[in-house]
Write a structure and sequence with these properties.
Number of helices: 15
CATH architecture of the largest domain: 3-Layer(aba) Sandwich
Strand content: 15-25%
Radius of gyration: 26 Å
Number of domains: 3
CATH class of the largest domain: Alpha Beta
Number of strands: 17
CATH topology of the largest domain: Rossmann fold
Helix content: 40-55%
Structural class: alpha/beta
Length: 362
């Protein structure tokens, strides 16, 4: 596999498919930080799910709105445990079935049912618009929920004259171990990752919620140095609403998301010429004349500051501001020394006596 992402660090906020996404990124050379923002809690024994199922059997839905593959499978599995799977499947087979995307479609077909319509955008809003145009007045709509309640969808359908049965198959919960997520928030705020991937809108909301009073700092990083990679436009919506430019593939697939990141990240790199060498800065490495040179955070921070103004002398005080809090001027000297060793091109960084350091561009 090619190493297009070598030298880049990418955060993964997914839970259920985190290993799959991480493997796709690592095969392309990326360093991955796993930090699930949420986890899915199945509701197989939940009273609300059982009551919603019995409501569907008592008042057979004219329309089934299937939002997710995992949700539809979980619903039918729960019904199996209650001895209601066959009556439920027979009831849903008589409904007009709308699946929000390919995963929901796959679950519908695996259950022996047939979807009648699916939106190109995989958007709940487009599904609701389609149903309202088609006409739902006087009809019963079974709405398989996507984690949390979707009041805007329910209200739109009720306003159009439908009776809505909300089917809560699972809910989102905080990660069992919040430490990796807070670590990722630190990395984003410090601009020590190059990209963060999101595979659901709730995960994006959860990361910002976990950031607390640093949420605006995280957003500023995502608006600038840190790429927000979203699996689709629905996932991107919470970030877009907050002014974050996102990169998302046209088809909501993990492979397509990785390809989008492969295309986008290298475009954001900075390249400079210094002391006869060509340096390209990546997240945790520099490419020197085509050779990848991994660097620790402090030397990398110094190199970024020097590369922002090639040839300009930066004082130790100025470079100190790029290092973690608590560092002193001796730490700057150590970072410069480690930078020279790491680059394997010692003449690139020049010491200017009593003034500071610069990239040698002459």
């Amino acid at each position: 596999m090619r190493d297009e992402l070598a030298g880049f660090t990418i955060g993964v906020t997914a839970d259920r498919r985190r290993d799959e996404l991480a493997a796709l990124l690592q095969r392309r050379g990326a360093r991955v930080v796993l930090a699930p923002a949420l986890r899915i809690v199945p509701l197989a024994d939940d009273t609300d799910l059982r009551e919603a199922t019995r409501a569907c059997l008592a008042h057979p839905p004219d329309v089934l709105m299937a939002n997710t593959g995992i949700g539809m499978r979980g619903w039918l599995e729960a019904a199996e445990g209650w001895g209601l799977a066959e009556p439920l499947r027979a009831t849903l087979a008589r409904a007009y079935v709308v699946s929000r995307g390919p995963k929901a479609t796959g679950a519908i077909r695996a259950a022996g049912l047939r979807e009648h319509w699916s939106p190109a955008s995989e958007s709940c809003d487009e599904v609701v618009e389609h149903l309202v145009r088609r006409g739902v007045a006087g009809q019963v709509v079974a709405l398989q929920l996507h984690g949390d309640r979707q009041p805007e969808c329910t209200e739109a359908l009720v306003t159009a004259g439908a009776t809505v049965i909300e089917v809560p198959v699972y809910r989102w919960a905080p990660p069992a171990d919040p430490a990796p997520l807070h670590r990722l928030i630190d990395l984003v705020a410090g601009r020590l990752v190059d990209a963060v991937t999101f595979t659901s809108a709730p995960a994006a909301e959860a990361l910002l919620r976990a950031a607390g009073d640093r949420a605006e700092t995280v957003l500023e990083a995502l608006r600038g140095d840190v790429l927000a990679g979203c699996v689709g436009t629905v996932t991107a919506e919470p970030l877009v609403r907050r002014g974050v430019p996102v990169s998302a593939p046209s088809r909501a697939r993990l492979g397509a998301l990785v390809r989008t990141i492969v295309e986008e990240l290298p475009r954001r790199t900075v390249s400079v010429k210094a002391a006869g060498h060509v340096l390209t800065l990546r997240g945790h490495a520099a490419v020197v004349d085509g050779e990848l040179r991994p660097l620790a955070p402090a030397p990398m921070a110094v190199l970024r500051a020097l590369a922002a103004s090639p040839g300009k002398v930066l004082s130790r005080t100025a470079l100190l501001r790029t290092l973690p809090r608590g560092a002193d001027e001796h730490a700057v000297e150590m970072a410069v020394a480690r930078l020279r060793v790491g680059l394997k091109a010692p003449r690139v960084v020049q010491t200017v006596v009593k003034r500071g350091y610069r990239l040698r561009v002459d």
